[in-house]
Design brief:
Elements lengths: L12 E5 L4 H15 L5 H14 L3 E3 L2 E2 L2 E3 L7 E11 L9 E9 L4 H15 L2 H9 L3 H11 L3
Parallel strand pairs: 1-5, 3-6, 4-6
Antiparallel strand pairs: 2-3, 5-6
Helix pairs in contact: 1-2, 4-5
Length: 153
Amino acid sequence: MSSISKYMSPKLINLNLKAVDKGAALMKICDMIAENHKIGEPKALFDNIMNRESLHSTAVGHGIAIPHARCDLSESILIAVGLFDKGVEFSAADGTPVNLIFVIVSPKNETASYLQLLSQLASLLNVEKVRNELISAKTSQEFLEIVKKNERR
């Protein structure tokens, strides 16, 4: 079983983002990914994520969303994280605004790893103690260490 933290890096974690809506929040994360990975134009990634989002909201409740895209813009799976202190309307089933957004980008040929990672991340974020620790993290490195410490549950 692969670890979640393997696909994360501090440069893809921003704990101080602000956005007025879901689209703006996701575009900020796509810009961050484009700045740190060779994916080309961030708008192409944004469009892939929004196409998936149009099928069904990826908000999983408790202030968490896990938007994801399977596309050939990245050569490997990656996870980017944005923390929005004010929360963003995300059409969550529980009606709560989303503060923590994990974006998973995966090449189309990585289906098994992608699905396994999505499941592991959802399970990890289902634990209230872990969510609280992540939201309270002061730095990107601290955030990543919290993921590493808890991903083997």
